[in-house]
Amino acid sequence: MIPEKLPGSINRLDELAHNLWWSWHEEARRLFRSLDYPLWNRSVHNPVKVLREVSKETLLTAASDPAFLTQYDTVLKAFDADMSAPNNWLTLPGGEVHGSLAYFSMEFAFHNSLPIYAGGLGILAGDICKEASDMALPMVGVGFMYPQGYFHQHISAEGWQEEIYSQLDFDEAPISRVLSPSGSNIIAEVQLGDVTLGIGVWQVRVGRTNIYLMDTNLEKNPEQYRHLTARLYVADREQRLKQEIILGIGGVRVLRALDTSPTVWHANEGHTAFMMLERIREKVEEGANFGDALESVQATTVFTTHTPVMAGHDIFTAQLIEKYFSDYLKSL
């Protein structure tokens, strides 16, 4: 965040840049584009990067330009209205939602300034989050912060595909670190074999919708586990299983730690399946028998699939499941 760099009359540009509301509102994109058009293009349309690199002189000029200030006021008025207006379908009879909704997905695509997606599944998830904001649905998203995202394809002179990964600069992304009440980076923990793994969280604001992206690159964690959340869709099956344990089981625990108790849990693809298992475990721990716990979780779970072919789904060997769930299964 760089609010100290901004003149008072335009000091909410930082707040606007760190809420991806601008990504689907043309008037907001025009505002940042008009601030410094060449820089807007060089940044690949990334307002956070623009505000980090724009000169102080340019900001002072904009802060005294009546045309820019009018544009700024118009955008902020629309932003504030969208963030607070009660006029949505939930106010209609029968439209009330009691409690929040949780949306679990392996990837989210909001904008290229946050490259944590591979393709269609992420686009779908991102659009659902934006629509939830427009409809004022009390929804939160849960996924991963992939600092290396998905690979870029390069074809070598010999005709072979080469995968190129780029490292995300967190300071130039529309994200913020979530801290525990004690100020720690660790929000929740999950067991992987004989290792207790700490989970950190980044928050992404998508209009009204908050997205929580998990991160294992913490000093507490053993070196070989710190890169579990570095890349999307790794080929190694064991590493993929570890990721999905963190997404499903860890994701539930993150929401509990953030004092969020969803009424409806949406699983976007089978990557998120362990989310359901963890909720069954919670209910058994509270005294329910397995059958009643299963029925309760079924009644509050929504599942959607984007790739209804075998190649789009994960299958793990019984040996791998036993390796990572032998103790966990006893709690069921």
Report on this structure:
There is one protein chain. The protein has 332 residues and is an alpha/beta fold. It is 36% helix and 17% strand. The protein has 11 helices and 10 strands. The strands form 2 sheets. Strands 1, 2, 5, 6, 7, 8, 9 and 10 form an 8-stranded mixed sheet that branches. Strands 3-4 form a two-stranded antiparallel ribbon. A hairpin with a 5-residue loop joins β3 and β4. The radius of gyration is 22 Å and the shape is globular. The mean pLDDT is 91.
Overall average pLDDT: 91
Low-confidence stretches: none
Give helix and strand order, one letter per element, not per position. HHHHHHEHEEEEEEEHEHHEH
Report the sheet-strand fraction: 15-25%
Instruction: Give the helix tally.
Output: 11
- Structural class of the secondary structure composition? alpha/beta
Tell me the Rg in angstroms: 22 Å
Q: What's the number of extended β-strand segments?
A: 10
Q: Give the CA-based shape.
A: globular
* Portion of residues within helices: 25-40%
**Cα distance spanning the termini:** 44 Å
What does the largest sheet look like? 8 strands, mixed
Note the topology.
Blueprint: H1 13-17, H2 26-35, H3 37-42, H4 47-53, H5 56-63, H6 66-84, E1 100-105, H7 120-134, E2 139-144, E3 152-155, E4 161-164, E5 176-178, E6 188-192, E7 195-206, E8 209-215, H8 237-257, E9 262-268, H9 274-285, H10 290-299, E10 301-304, H11 318-325
Parallel strand pairs: 1-2, 1-9, 2-8, 9-10
Antiparallel strand pairs: 3-4, 5-7, 6-7, 7-8
